[in-house]
Design the sequence.
């Protein structure tokens, strides 16, 4: 019985991994046989690729790092503050989180235009910092933390930042990594915002590059897809055990 | 006594202040502009700005493209989300007997959600390019989301304490009642969480379809609400965009409210 | 086991970004160094003798300046420089031309060009690697 289940597991993993493996495979294979020509064309012949690559890295990192303090504070507030309308506020966040991007794109664009941030990196980074996804998920995790630790920390110091730092963060370290990973993946994946808000080619991200890759000569399509997924993959592998623990803690919501 | 009360008050205030940065940002970048969008949906033109009440809404609701998009979006949700959840349920039910396998392959299951869409859309496109239907898009969505549902649900299933089973069995409960009274209540919250997650993702599916077709005007069966709004944005038709945005928000609001009411009623 | 795989991932990540960083700065230089290094100059003109009869039937011989190309070059292959945008950046390419020449020759072995080369063209006069039609080149002074 156990063997059968093991086989099913491996089959399923195979199904989930298949498209990724196929992408890597096709980046090396075209027409004749196995060549690295695609990579040669991409890395040595397509110089607009590099700014876009680093832009993707930069934007995603900046957004993730900036979002963490905001999100942790916000989740803490949602968990421990008592005021009327807290429930309604949280529902507001959930609704905002569920909105497809297109609904908020127009408000975003107009807001950015008035602030003069269109066609700048900040136009992409700032709105995403306040994406409600992190706050909602973080709050679900925080509901399960031990309040006694917080009480103890409160007796020690009156600075709320200290309290959070000492009592909540160590407990939720794994969850923080999990949330950071998902936020990074979401930002890395961003396509609409760079495409619509940025007109300067040097500011665009690699996701836009791939969607426009048809206009470049050479077989740059698949190699760029492979390179695009490597950083996220590496990050994911690095934090995979934290992710496991983080996810299972979250299911108690 | 007085000192303690002071501390208690200011603690709560501090907690409330914690919400400040996130709240300010959300207000500045989402809420305030959204109100502006509602305003746009009620005027006739960017330049003349006459208040036209619900005329725009009537126009949009009778626009055949909007209705097509609406149909496609709803179809996607109604078909794909249950498939994902049922599939995940069945698989995790079967697999919950093999705990140690889960730990090894968990990484592979969550991978589809983490892998950037752009990379996957390419291979999907080259494989399914000849299929002129909306099924490849559904498949992409199912592939992406089932993995994480399986992970979460198996975690829920394995969290059921076998000792409870023993105790209940000693009390003379049959297998069916066992599962109904013990397994279901424990697993239900996770099912709701997973459903919520999947529905959220189903609304965000625009990226996948756009990258799959590589164009702003996909075949009719894949033309979703997001396409309608995106194209209006590009055409600078802010009125249609605003109206459809408001309508979509109302739709989502309704779904979330419905879901929460359901959850409240069930988790009594 | 977990620690080892984590270390491997970390090493791989560092290597990946180091390679990308290196390539960001040097890929273009490497690419250029692998191209044929060419020198180009404007089209030359030489004096050719022209014989003509005027209204009176007198034969006149005079010299005019015409676009000229050396016989050597004609045999080697005439390449004209042009710029085009490829993959988002401006590059220089070489196009092979087969100009029509007349029978006239000058003393230093230049042929008169009838068509194919215009005055503003830049002809490639030296190259470090063999050229072919449409190949990318790097122009050095």
Sequence:
């Amino acid at each position: 019985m156990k063997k059968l289940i093991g086989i099913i597991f491996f089959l399923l993993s195979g199904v989930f991994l298949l498209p990724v493996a196929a992408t890597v495979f096709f980046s090396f294979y075209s027409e004749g046989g196995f060549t690295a020509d695609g990579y040669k064309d991409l890395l040595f012949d397509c110089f607009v690729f590099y700014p876009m690559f680093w832009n993707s890295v930069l934007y995603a990192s900046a957004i993730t790092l900036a979002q963490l303090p905001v999100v942790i504070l916000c989740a803490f507030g949602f968990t421990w503050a008592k005021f009327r309308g807290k429930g309604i506020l949280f529902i507001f966040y959930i609704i905002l989180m569920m909105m497809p991007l297109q609904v908020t794109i127009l408000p975003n664009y107009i807001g950015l235009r008035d602030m003069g941030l269109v066609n700048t990196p900040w136009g992409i980074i700032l709105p995403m910092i306040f994406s409600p996804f992190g706050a909602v998920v973080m709050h679900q995790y925080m509901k399960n933390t031990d309040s006694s630790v917080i009480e103890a920390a409160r007796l020690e110091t009156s600075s709320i930042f200290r309290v959070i730092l000492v009592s909540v963060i160590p407990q939720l370290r794994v969850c923080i990594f999990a949330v950071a990973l998902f936020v990074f993946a979401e930002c890395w994946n961003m396509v609409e915002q760079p495409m619509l808000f940025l007109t300067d080619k040097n500011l665009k991200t690699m996701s836009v590059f791939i969607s426009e890759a048809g206009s470049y000569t050479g077989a740059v399509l698949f190699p760029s897809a492979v390179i695009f997924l490597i950083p996220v993959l590496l990050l994911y592998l690095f934090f995979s055990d934290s992710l496991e623990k983080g996810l299972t803690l979250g299911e108690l919501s | 006594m007085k000192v303690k009360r002071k501390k208690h008050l200011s603690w709560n205030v501090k907690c409330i202040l914690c919400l400040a940065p996130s709240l300010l940002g959300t207000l500045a970048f989402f809420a305030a502009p959204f109100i502006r969008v509602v305003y746009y949906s009620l005027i006739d033109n960017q330049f003349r700005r006459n208040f036209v009440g619900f005329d725009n809404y009537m126009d949009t609701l009778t626009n055949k493209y909007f209705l097509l998009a609406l149909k496609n979006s709803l179809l996607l949700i109604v078909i794909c989300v249950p498939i994902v959840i049922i599939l995940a349920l069945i698989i995790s039910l079967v697999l919950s007997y093999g705990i140690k396998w889960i730990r090894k392959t968990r990484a592979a299951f969550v991978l589809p959600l983490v892998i950037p869409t752009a990379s996957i859309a390419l291979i999907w496109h080259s494989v399914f390019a000849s299929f002129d239907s909306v099924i490849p898009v559904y498949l992409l969505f199912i592939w992406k989301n089932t993995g994480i549902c399986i992970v979460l649900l198996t975690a829920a299933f394995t969290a059921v304490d076998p000792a409870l089973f023993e105790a209940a069995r000693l009390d003379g409960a049959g297998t069916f009642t066992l599962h109904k009274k013990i397994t279901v209540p424990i697993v239900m919250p996770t099912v709701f969480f997973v459903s919520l997650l999947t529905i959220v993702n189903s609304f965000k599916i625009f990226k996948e379809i756009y990258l799959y077709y590589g164009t702003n005007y996909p075949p009719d069966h894949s033309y979703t609400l997001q396409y309608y709004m995106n194209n209006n944005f590009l055409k600078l038709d802010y009125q249609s965009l605003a109206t459809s945005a408001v309508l979509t928000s109302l739709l989502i609001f309704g779904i979330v409210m419905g879901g929460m009411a359901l959850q409240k009623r069930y988790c009594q | 086991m977990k620690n080892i795989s984590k270390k491997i991932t970390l090493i791989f990540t560092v290597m990946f970004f180091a390679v990308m960083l290196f390539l960001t700065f040097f890929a273009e230089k490497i690419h250029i160094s692998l191209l044929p290094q060419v020198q180009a100059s404007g089209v030359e003109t030489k004096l050719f003798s022209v014989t003509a009869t005027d209204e009176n039937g007198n034969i006149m011989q005079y010299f005019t300046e015409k676009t000229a190309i050396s016989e050597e070059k004609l045999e080697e292959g005439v390449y004209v420089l042009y710029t085009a945008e490829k993959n988002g950046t401006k590059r220089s390419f070489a196009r092979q031309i087969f100009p029509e020449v007349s029978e006239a020759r000058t003393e230093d072995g230049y042929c008169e060009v009838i068509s194919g080369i215009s005055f503003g063209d830049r002809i490639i006069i030296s190259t470090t690697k063999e050229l072919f039609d449409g190949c990318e080149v790097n122009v050095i002074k």
